[in-house]
Amino acid sequence: MPSPHADGDFNLIYNLPQQRRIAAFHLAPMMGWWDGIRGAAIAAACGFCCTAAAQDAAVPAMACGGEPIAQASVSGVIDGRTLLLSDGRGVRLAAIEVPPLAIVGNMVGNSEKASARAGEAAKAALDALTGGDQVLLRQADAGLDHNTDRYGRLVAYVYAQRDGVELFAQAALIEAGLARAAGRIDGESCAAELHAAERTARAGKLGLWGDPYYEVLNADAPVDVLAQRGRFALVEGQVVSVRQSGATIYVNFGRRWSESFAVTISKRNERSFAAAGLDVMSLAGRRIRVRGWVEARGADGNVPWMEALRPEQIEIADRN
Q1: 3-class state of residue 3 by DSSP
Q2: Which domain holds residue 111?
């Protein structure tokens, strides 16, 4: 069958029966997603594809997801993190960020085209993982009313059930380099698992990580960080200082706060960081990796910054 490299070839995969779509994306059921998927993801569709090896070992403890909130079959895939169930409900995959699909009239530059191809690859892989299957949805955020977002979609960790085994969709997409771990991941163990999966993909330059557009940004290059304003990104660098001003803690990556990239943390959230083992005030001198949405500050809006609302947004990079 054709390799899904060229634009338009994804439709060939969508029209295949489920088992042939699985083969096209080199996907196999896995008994225990972490043992099964580690090191198994490879890039194939524009550098984007994923694999998972079946395991005979017992299923490990569930790292991601709380109580089951729904079980149904998948009737369609909207994009790389949105499913449609056979009962008409929409599902948003928690804890991941995927490139968006192409917007008509917005394909003007190479970066937009690369993003669109990556978005199509994520959608195609999610279809291969879950399309036509029964899925078990596990609670992602106990604080959500009826486990739904403001658009009425269920927000969940998604486990496709096939031939008596489960495929953890979020982990498969991340380890294949088709998605990045989001800034909100409920549970320390889940965050650790998904961050480790992402590091595996990044080290192998799989999927997104093989494209310079998605590489981790250097905090010492604020112009490059600012260019990602309004987008989800990972930024890494050595913290120069940590200062508190009023109700805000500033994690500074340069000596001149008016010119350098900084991360802000609300003082009222400091306790949640400490509970996760992250002493914010002691980050000076440490090399960290922070993920989130790039924003701009300053009178001219020319200084990049990022707000960290949750501890899983920050990793100690000199440890991993």
Answers
A1: coil
A2: 10-212
Q: Are 291 and 181 in contact (CB under 8 A)?
A: yes
According to the model, what pLDDT value does residue 107 have? 52
Which pLDDT score, from 0 to 100, does residue 154 have? 98
Q: Do the Cβ atoms of 199 and 175 come closer than 8 Å?
A: no
DSSP state of 72: E
Cα–Cα nearest to 96, from 172, 147, 44, 17: 172
- Last residue in a domain, options 165, 190, 212: 212
Query: HSE (CB half, 13 Å, CA atoms) of 92?
Result: 18
**What are the residue ranges in the chain where pLDDT is below 70?**
1-62, 104-110, 320
pLDDT digits (tens, 9 = 90+) for 267-294: 999 999 999 999 999 999 999 999 999 9
Exposed, middle or buried: residue 108 (CB in 10 Å: 0-12, 13-18, 19+)? exposed
Query: Hey, what amino acid is at 248?
Result: T
Question: Do 49 and 25 form a contact (C-beta atoms < 8 A)?
Answer: yes
Does residue 2 form part of some domain?
no
